[in-house]
């Protein structure tokens, strides 16, 4: 059993925020995979199943995402090697894609929560959303919608992220990194 987690915040207020690109990517996967909704309160999130793949959108709000991931991983006995977390990454320009296992959280509260509850040794699909000019603007930046300039390329970016997530199911991590890491949206 493998688990793909898209990070984001629940509710219409946050739907199109940069912080919700993980949710957007899982939504695209749900369209592609015809997964069944198996959500349950104990999982604290929307949970779907397609074959031996689980897809999760934690509904705990970003800062407590680890609670939902831990609940699903514990119940289904999924080890961190078989978990892929899709999240926004401010240290990468809009449209950049990086894949890695483990490492730091870069101040990302969703990752901090997951790290604390299941270890850092899970796979990450880091989706670049760019960063604000000043550090104190980070929270408002990630909780804002993508810009008018980014909007036309957002669908392409999300489609690519979903494709990379599907390839994670098939390829070794090193091969996935070398074939699918991109510096910016124009490489996709």
Structural commentary:
By secondary structure, this protein is of the alpha/beta class. It has a single domain (2-187), classed as 3-Layer(aba) Sandwich (Rossmann fold). It is built from 6 helices and 7 strands, in the order E-H-E-E-E-H-E-E-H-E-H-H-H. It has helices at 21-33, 65-76, 109-118, 138-142, 151-168, 173-180; strands spanning 2-6, 36-37, 45-50, 53-58, 83-89, 97-101, 123-128. A 7-stranded mixed β-sheet has the order 2-3-4-1-5-7-6, sandwiched between helices. Helix 1 crosses helix 5 (151-168) and helix 2 (65-76) packs parallel to helix 3. The mean pLDDT is 96.
Topology:
Layout: E1 2-6, H1 21-33, E2 36-37, E3 45-50, E4 53-58, H2 65-76, E5 83-89, E6 97-101, H3 109-118, E7 123-128, H4 138-142, H5 151-168, H6 173-180
Question: Top keywords for this entry?
Answer:
6 helices, seven-stranded mixed sheet, alpha/beta, 7 strands, about 190 residues, about 20% strand, Rossmann fold
| Poorly predicted regions | none
Tally of separate domains: 1
What is the average of the pLDDT values? Answer: 96
Please tally the β strands and state the result: 7
CATH class division: Alpha Beta
What summary fits the major beta sheet? Answer: 7 strands, mixed
Level-2 CATH architecture: 3-Layer(aba) Sandwich
CATH superfamily: Peptidyl-tRNA hydrolase
- The CATH topology label is Rossmann fold
- Distance N terminus to C terminus? 29 Å
How much of the residues is beta strand, in percent?
15-25%
What coarse outline follows from CA principal-axis ratios? globular
Q: What structural category characterises the helix and strand content?
A: alpha/beta
Measured as a percent range, the helix fraction is: 25-40%
User: What is the helix tally?
Assistant: 6
Q: Order of strands across the widest beta sheet?
A: 2-3-4-1-5-7-6
């Amino acid at each position: 059993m493998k688990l793909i987690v898209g990070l984001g915040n629940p509710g219409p207020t946050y739907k199109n925020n940069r912080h919700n690109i993980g949710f957007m990517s899982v939504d695209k996967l749900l369209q592609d995979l015809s997964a069944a909704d198996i959500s349950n309160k104990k999982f604290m999130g929307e949970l779907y199943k397609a074959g031996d793949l689980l897809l999760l959108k934690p509904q705990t709000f970003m800062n407590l995402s680890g609670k939902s991931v831990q609940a699903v991983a514990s119940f289904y006995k999924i080890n961190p090697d078989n978990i892929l977390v899709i999240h926004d990454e401010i240290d990468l320009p809009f449209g950049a894609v990086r894949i890695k296992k483990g490492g730091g959280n870069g101040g990302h509260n969703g990752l901090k929560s997951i790290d604390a509850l299941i270890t850092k040794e899970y796979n990450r699909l880091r989706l670049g959303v760019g960063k604000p000019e000043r550090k104190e603007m980070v929270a408002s930046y990630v909780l804002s919608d993508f810009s008018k300039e980014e909007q036309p390329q957002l669908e392409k970016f999300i489609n690519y992220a979903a494709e990379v997530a599907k390839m994670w199911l098939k390829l070794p991590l090193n091969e996935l990194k070398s074939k699918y890491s991109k510096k910016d949206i124009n490489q996709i």
